[in-house]
Specification:
389 residues; 8-stranded mixed β-sheet
């Protein structure tokens, strides 16, 4: 049986950020990622100011800025009668008054490269976590053999379908919709900012990816959305500037929307973070950033007990106490939008008069700040291990 100090299941934003931070502090870390690389279509890739500040604190800001990306400073809502800016990030204070849209695989590659600089970091691709054993993980290696690795701490960062969190109590909040994601080419005369399109009984999201549009067609929970032939006329009606391109829709990827949260994020030797602890709705695009905040909080609270060999359940409980308020507030905001805007619209109600949002500037600024920075922004308190200075 292999041994390490911390084994992390899942090489997503939460797992990779936590692995980097713990390795930076001198903790021996193994990250298990079941895929051969990070390349997956339609993964979340909105990197908010809270995450950009963390990258700055780690000295990775300049390297991140060198990645292909687009900055969005305004979010526009379009109804049949109105076009309104519902979020203006340019008014935020700080170095990053924008949301950066970066392919998630580039973001994860950046974190992996930074983590590999530390000799106590071990990223194992094509290694799938199978179960929590009580003192580590049973996993399948690239050759298909089952192996065990023992660790003082196992972290489940393996997403909303986590296999390691089995048995922990889960509270489901539900969602009225699913999303069909697809692409269409973009031309220079197209709009610049992300678009939320609200129609009677129909909704879409359009994200500018420079050379193409990433489009999300929102349907009632469980309704079919995978047939391009059915979706094309709705896209043409909701976003007329794309009408001449809808014939190019050839594949649609379904996102089954979930909103849930573990009642307890931990058991002896195991901690859940990111989507494994709380699956978020795509509403507001905060998934990556909450996951990263979880990882930073966990690293700040756990690196010392891990180094000293005295980790206990009270340390794991402290991570949940720290991160629960921010998670609850964002989920409640998502559920309010789902229940009061999305569900009525999908049932055929007229879209709300979004133009009124422009009259409530203080409320709009507060909402933008909450989405961009979070309720309780985390900052890196993990020191660089003496051997790495």
């Amino acid at each position: 049986m292999e041994e390490t100090t911390c084994v992390i299941a899942g090489g997503g934003p939460a797992g990779m950020m936590l692995g980097l931070l713990l390795a930076r502090a001198g903790v021996k870390v193994v990250v298990l990622e079941k895929h051969a690389d990070f390349l997956r279509d339609f993964r979340g890739d909105t990197v908010h100011p809270s995450t950009l500040e963390i990258l700055d604190e780690l000295g990775l800001g300049a390297r991140f800025a060198g990645l292909p990306q687009r900055h969005a400073r305004k979010i526009t809502a379009v109804t049949d009668t109105d076009t309104v800016t519902i979020g203006d990030l340019s008014q935020l204070r700080g170095r990053h008054p924008y949301i950066a849209f970066v392919p998630q695989w580039d973001f994860l590659d950046l974190l992996a490269e930074a983590a590999r600089a530390f000799p106590n970091f071990d990223l194992r691709m094509r290694c799938e976590a199978l179960s929590f054993t009580g003192d580590g993980v049973l996993y399948r290696d690239p050759e298909g053999a089952e192996r065990r690795i023992r660790a003082d701490l196992t972290v489940a960062a393996d997403g909303r379908s986590s296999v390691l969190r089995a048995g922990l109590p889960l509270r489901e909040h539900g969602a009225p919709m699913d999303v069909g994601w697809f692409r269409l080419p973009r031309v220079p005369d197209d709009p610049e900012d992300p678009i939320l399109r609200l129609g009677t009984g129909k909704m879409m999201v359009a994200i500018n990816r420079e050379t193409y549009w990433q489009l999300g067609y929102i349907v009632p929970k469980g309704d079919p959305v995978e047939d391009p032939e059915t979706v094309r006329p709705h896209v043409a009606k909701l976003l007329p500037f794309l009408a001449g391109r809808v014939a190019e829709i050839d594949a649609i990827s379904r996102l089954t929307v979930q909103v849930n949260r573990l009642r307890r994020w931990h058991r002896p030797g195991l901690l859940c973070i990111g989507d494994a602890a709380h699956a978020m709705s795509p509403v507001l695009g905060v998934g990556i950033n909450l996951a990263v905040q979880d990882a930073v909080a966990a690293a700040n609270l756990l690196y010392r007990p891990l180094l000293e060999g005295n980790l206990s359940s009270r340390h794991l409980a402290a991570v949940q106490r720290r991160r629960t308020p921010a998670t609850v507030v964002i989920q409640r905001l998502q559920l309010t939008i789902q229940d009061r805007v999305i569900a009525p619209a999908l049932e055929g109600a007229s879209p709300p008069p979004v133009r009124y949002l422009s009259y409530v500037r203080p409320l709009q600024r507060a909402a933008v700040s909450l989405i961009a920075k979070g309720l309780r922004p985390e900052h890196v308190q993990v020191p660089l291990a003496p051997a790495e200075r």
